[in-house]
Amino acid sequence: MKNTSMIWEKEFDLNYAVGHDTSGKAYEFDRRTNARAAGSMTTTASDYAKFIIGTMGQKILSKNLQKELFTPQIKISSKRGFGPQRDSLITANEKIQLAWGLSFGFFNSKYGKGYFHGGHDDDWQNYAVCFPQSKLAIVIMTNSSNYEPAAASILNQCIGDVYSPLEWLGY
User: Fold this and answer.
1) β-bridge partners, 114
2) Alpha carbon of 166 to those of 5, 48, 57, 105: distances in Å?
3) Which residues contact 162 (CB under 8 A, 6 or more apart)?
4) Pairwise CA distance, residues 107 & 6, whole Å
5) Contact 85/152 with Cβ under 8 angstroms?
6) What are the residues facing 117 on neighbouring strands?
7) Which backbone phi and psi does 88 adopt, to 5 degrees?
8) Domains, the chain, ranges and CATH?
């Protein structure tokens, strides 16, 4: 993952996307100089896909770390992950066993157990979901605030994913 860092690197000046708000107005990338756990990683789709493929093939971590990474830690019973409904409890998440781990969110689907991670910043929105038993995964990295409203359609058309917990994520 040569094009990935938790802070802005000088070589990234030649390879980055300009973000766009919902009306198409350009938004300059924030070149972070301090690492943060949430939101400071800069990477390319190719690098992140390598990471996702590695997690699916269980080739990048020791067996103990792999087990820890893929062990659900927190059962999710909230209606939403963020925003005003994050404290509203529902039982629908039990059906898919929605949970959060040390890095990924987890859920059950007809493709088997799935795991996901997403994120967004001003005018960049991203999502990755993996179904290792079915050997299906997708990494979506956008430079537009228009992705989240289209996420369900994109996931369904690309890999037939109608199981990702997009409503819980607030998409």
Assistant:
1) 107
2) 27, 20, 25, 11
3) 152, 155, 156
4) 28
5) no
6) 128
7) -85, 125
8) 10-169 (3.40.710.10)
**What CA–CA distance (Å, rounded) separates 107 from 130?**
10
Place of tokens 């059962």: 75
24-34 pLDDT, tens per residue?
999 877 888 89
Alpha helix ranges (H) inside 6-136: 45-57, 63-69, 92-96
Q: What is the pLDDT of residues 27-56, one digit of tens each?
A: 877 888 898 877 788 899 999 999 999 888
Specify whether the CB–CB gap between 6 and 41 falls below 8 A. Answer: yes
Nearest Cα to Cα of residue 144 among 159, 121, 117, 125: 125
Residue 19, classified by CB atoms within 10 Å of its CB into exposed (0-12), middle (13-18) or buried (19+), is: buried
Query: What's the predicted TM-score (pTM) here?
Result: 0.88
Q: In this model, does residue 59 exceed pLDDT 80?
A: no
The position carrying tokens 């938790």 is 6
Q: How far apart are CA 86 and CA 169, in angstroms?
A: 10
